[in-house]
Amino acid sequence: MNLVLYSLSSILEYKSIETIFWFCRIPILILLYLLTGKTNFIYLFGLLLYQTASILFATSNQDLFLYGSFASIGFKICLLILLLPLINKSNRKAIILASLPFFILYLYIIELVMYSLGDSLLIWLLNALITSFMGGIAIIHYNKNFDLKGYWLLISSIFFIIQIGAFFINKFYIKSEAIYQMVIFFYGLSHFTFYKFLILKEAENTKHTV
Questions:
Q1: Residue 94: pLDDT above 70?
Q2: Under a CB-based contact definition with an 8 Å cutoff, are residues 136 and 156 in contact?
């Protein structure tokens, strides 16, 4: 609902209302997660890093964009840590191969905006690598298990990949309201679907320890 209201206020150019819904996106997700009774510190810390990155990216200051880039890569590292249990000796090579198409796509997009990234170029290359690797993990895990948990992870990874690509293009290459709305849409869905994956994963872990 917050995502829909944010998009509508953005389209209708109600700036004050848009700012409120924009700021509340991650806090609402944190609240929803805490209400489930879960307290995964890595996930919560990752969400706080993403909120920080969003605030810094909203400015036009290049120095703050650099700090936002560090916060963004920190968020992705937190997500990767949560996915590490899905990696084992039997699927490592398959995950790497499944990651390559995403990473190559990212390299093309980064090449378009390379000079605009400045000192944050290496950070975003690492971000692209981690995001691509997450996509590879999601594909191989779902292909092997075909469970609901893997479905949410796969959808989330695809949305994260689309969101970052659209973010780059809109911020540095082509300013477009349509692309901006796409960033908003996939931003919300990528976070919500990963949240759904994590809830199922933690419920599964709890069941196994009982």
A1: yes
A2: no
